[in-house]
């Protein structure tokens, strides 16, 4: 596996999207090649207007084993959603 | 029928068809998934251009023949592509060198064709130029990577450039149809592109730490239908379906 080029994560902003979204990953020798490869692999069906690439090794991910302590405490705290207010009829688009 | 215009269009289109077929041969065989897709994207760009040219040629012929007839049912001698584009995918260095040596010409040619007095050709050129600019970016990037890479990659790309160099001069030869179309302000005078072409290619090869071949004798013939042995094999692949199951559609 050491012969492979480094892995990169690809983020693409689609035509109507406001933000870049994770599209997938690919191999490339450097950032220029990563951008060109991303263009060919992920935007050939007219998906994008902007591409970001970042080396996968620069992403720090949460550990799935810590799921309990990281995420479960939020599950029973419905009061953190702003759903307990009575909205006046005049307020629209909420 | 306007014989000269018809032949002129075929001279342009056949280059894209044959090079597109060569790049398409790499489908599923590229050196990596990413490069595989890049090569087949280039192939599809070229085939898209080819359709516009052949549809126009079929209209000019006006005898019921279709774009498919023109693409699939001619004999070897009736194809007017330059020898460069029919050269095989000997290895990745050959694929890149062939692509680059053609892309530089192709971009210059289409830029000039945009000013054609024929509005259809001018429109096709305007649409294609963006695609070809990307092809050139891709191939010149790889020339630099291979030339300035490892000893092995440098050797391979230098070999490929040396071998293919002999086919570059033909790009700037004029056929009878060329001359007639230049007179009518429809065609591009390719002799005018030669100097800028070699300047551009020389500058990139130098940047890629490669030697510029010094050749005095060049191959020619493709533009008048006299091809290298490779074209026959390519056509037998390309035409197989239509020859075996005539009029087949899907």
Explain the overall architecture.
The complex is a heterodimer of chains A (94) and B (250). Chain A is of the alpha+beta class. Helix content of chain A is 18%, strand content 24%. Chain A has helices at 31-42, 67-71; strands at residues 7-14, 21-27, 48-55. Chain B has one domain (3-244): Up-down Bundle (Ferritin). Chain B is 65% helix and 0% strand. In chain B, helix 2 (33-61) runs antiparallel to helix 6 (119-147) and helix 6 packs antiparallel against helix 7 (151-164). Chain B is globular. Classes of the chains: A alpha+beta (94), B mainly alpha (250). The interface between A and B is small, with 12 and 11 residues.
Largest interface: A-B, 12 and 11 residues
Order of helices and strands of chain A: EEHEH
Helix content of chain B: 55-70%
The oligomeric status of these chains comes to heterodimer
Main sheet strand line-up of chain A: 2-1-3
Overall residue-averaged pLDDT value of chain A = 88
Through-space gap between termini of chain B: 31 Å
The number of domains of chain A: 1
Main beta-sheet strand count, sense and barrel state of chain B? none
CA distance, first residue to last residue of chain A:
51 Å
Number of strand segments of chain A: 3
CATH architectural designation of chain A: Roll
What structural category arises from helix and sheet content of chain A? alpha+beta
Please count the beta strands of chain B (DSSP E, at least 2 residues each).
0
Q: Please give the share of residues in helix of chain A.
A: 10-25%
């Amino acid at each position: 596996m050491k012969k492979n080029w480094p892995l990169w994560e690809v983020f693409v902003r689609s035509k109507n999207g406001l933000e870049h979204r994770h599209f997938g990953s690919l191999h490339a020798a450097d950032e220029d090649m990563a951008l060109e490869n991303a263009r060919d692999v992920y935007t050939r069906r007219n998906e994008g207007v902007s591409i970001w690439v970042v080396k996968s090794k620069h992403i720090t991910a949460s550990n799935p084993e810590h799921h309990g302590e990281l995420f479960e405490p939020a599950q029973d705290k419905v009061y953190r959603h702003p759903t307990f207010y009575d909205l006046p009829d005049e307020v629209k688009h909420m | 029928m306007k014989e000269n215009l018809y032949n002129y269009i075929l001279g342009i289109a056949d280059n894209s068809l044959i090079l597109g077929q060569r790049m398409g041969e790499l489908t599923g065989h590229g050196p990596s998934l990413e490069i595989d897709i890049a090569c087949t994207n280039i192939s599809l760009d070229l085939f898209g251009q080819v359709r516009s040219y052949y549809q126009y040629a079929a209209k000019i012929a006006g005898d019921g023949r279709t774009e498919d007839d023109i693409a699939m049912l001619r004999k070897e001698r009736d194809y007017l592509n330059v020898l460069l584009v029919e050269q095989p995918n000997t290895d990745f260095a050959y694929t890149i060198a062939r692509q680059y040596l053609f892309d530089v010409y192709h971009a210059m040619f289409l830029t000039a064709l945009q000013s054609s007095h024929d509005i259809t050709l001018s429109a096709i050129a305007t649409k294609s130029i963006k695609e070809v600019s990307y092809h050139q970016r891709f191939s010149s990037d790889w020339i630099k990577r291979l030339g300035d890479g490892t000893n092995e990659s440098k050797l391979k790309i230098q070999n490929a450039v040396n071998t293919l160099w002999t086919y570059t001069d033909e790009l700037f030869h004029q056929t009878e149809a060329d001359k007639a179309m230049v007179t009518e302000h429809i065609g591009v005078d390719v002799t005018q592109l030669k100097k800028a072409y070699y300047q551009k290619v020389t500058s990139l090869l130098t940047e890629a730490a490669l030697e510029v071949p010094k050749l005095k004798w060049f191959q020619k013939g493709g533009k008048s239908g006299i091809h290298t042995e490779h074209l026959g094999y390519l056509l037998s692949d390309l035409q197989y379906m239509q020859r075996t199951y005539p009029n087949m559609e899907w």
